[in-house]
Amino acid sequence: MATKQQQSAPTPTRPRSTNGVIKGTKAGTGDERIVVIVFGQGQDRIVPVFADVLGKPHRMATNFSSVRNEDHGTVIGIAAGDAKVDIDSRNRSLIVAINAHCVALGMPPDLNLSASTDYEFLYTETPFFRRDLSRFISFILGQISHHEALITKPRTYFISTTFPDVRTALSNLDILSVGSDAVEIRVDLLKEGLTDGTFNSVPSLSYVGEQVMLLRQRTELPIIFTTRCTKENGRFPMDNPELYYEYLYRAIQWGCEYVDVEVWLPEDIRRRLFEQRGNSRIISAFHDFSGTFKWPSLQAQNIFQESRKYGDIVKMITIINTMSENYELEYFRSQIKANNPDGPPLSAVNMGQLGQLSRALNTVFSPITHPLLPIVAAPGQLSAAEINGALATMGQLPKKNIYAIGTFRSTPQATFFEKCFNELGLPHNFASVDRGVKGSVEAFCLQPNFGGAYINPPLSSSQPYIPMLSDAARTIGAVDTIVVRGEGQSSTLIGDNATWKGIRATLTRDFAPSAYKDRAAIILSSNGEDAASVIFALRSLNIGKIYTVGFKAHGPLAAGVEPFTSVESVTKSDTPFAIISALPPEKTHLVQPLLRYFSNGRDSRGQGKVFVDLANGPRKGDPIGVAEGCGWTAYGVADTSAFTTVETLRLLVGQNVPYSFVRLASGRGLY
């Protein structure tokens, strides 16, 4: 297979945390080059969709040389035929080029365009998954990053889709990925059917690209792109290292968050991939199936040092012969951590039944399986529930009492938590209790086996029995999650706020974080307390001026917040990009006139875009229906509650439950 030599593109700026938020508070600007979309014949309508997701205007151009500095802030579209003329001579420091290809056209992407552009977005028109585009463009431009958040978790897991065609997995993917922090696509296990009934020895790039597209359309989890060779329990041939480069570099172009690069590949290939990885992360992988590898050896140390040269994560997997080798691995792991405090993190497990102990003790990207998978990706793999059960048996996961505290109607997540605990195999007891009289929350917190609590409505952040607060809880002034860190006498209670993260995740579901930068927003609420999480979420996205209806902001959130005082002040305001209603259900109809008024597009970047209704209960009027009828992208409390539940579970038990599973288990499937 012919390979076109890739040219190194500038590495985009990387944010420091997940979902476009740096250190949990502010969205990063990321790659600020001009976005140019190369589109196929008759596919020019994808350009305004890219622009809308980014919150920018767009225009068409006839070639790359016509793109100038003054086009910053505008998305440019160039037809594929025109782009070929000067794409290789484009100003790479000014332009980031994306090849957008609709797979429904019945032909693969143009290989020259695929190789020449910086990135490639594959999509379907019917249905069209806008959130897939939002995630793709936000990630490749460095506005979101899962990695910095994941490496701070006490434990991370990934599940491997061992299907010959990922379509087989899609119907169960919501359940398969419970407990996983990422999902791996094993490219070498894919089977591309040929017209004669046989299978391609190596699946084509177009087939693999479509498989990645299908997987990303159905999961919000980061994707690990893996091509395992025949020597390492895979099916990719070893006689053509450039073939690996071609596929692995294309994974970077497709926006895969992690790319697995085997350490046996020539150093030049590993170096090129590392230098060209953009916002993707490289997992430098070593596997040994000989049964002769020893952890307490110079070879093991040398392999780690070689792997770390071009890896953001080092993965070492071996076959062992005795149980004691698990303890040798743990000593090796402790030495690596002590001698390499700045990383990269080490993911290391022993295969086979004898090595299952190491799978339970590994804390970095442990590979897991699930009963619904057709085969395990490697011998001895355990499910997330089995690992949690093993940890509980060893005393590494003590049984705790975790609570949902509040009224039954105001804690719709409570019934779902038990389902998650069961699916994850967690040993904890979960109870939903009424808050009761003043001081009752403190009584729960002082119990010896207290493991944390979700509180709705939230507490004031000034509780003497909660000695530590997150920045969000302190600024918002409300605690909706109490987290326990440490064990026994050294344990500490931390007050946190998950609601703002749920709101922010909703706001960025169909729009990139940069779409909100310096734009106006309107918040309606009966009081400042109910609006505080909304203000904090908008501030994290670098929103511009915030207008308020029904309340005045006070304290640290008051800067840049201006109340509407009259009809005249409404008419003189900037067109809001977002309107968020925190009004109670009986008052939600009051937002409808604003939705209608601001649907006319009074500024150069178009009409208002996003409406969120946080009311929980029977509404007066139909604000979401009005918003959708006026062209707004509308979300209800079910969306924000589901995202908040995801964040709450991460805080309480350190485990990931996908948004799609939350919606599925709560009675409404996403697809």
TrEMBL record:
GO MF annotation terms: 3-dehydroquinate dehydratase activity
Pfam families on file: DHquinase_I
InterPro entries: Aldolase_TIM, DHquinase_I, MurA_subfamily
Region: Disordered, residue numbers: 1-26
The organism's place on the tree of life at top rank: Eukaryota
Record's signal peptide: none
Composition bias type Polar residues, residue spans: 1-20
Protein name per Swiss-Prot or TrEMBL: Pentafunctional AROM polypeptide
Organism: Sclerotinia nivalis
Species classification: Eukaryota, Fungi, Dikarya, Ascomycota, Pezizomycotina
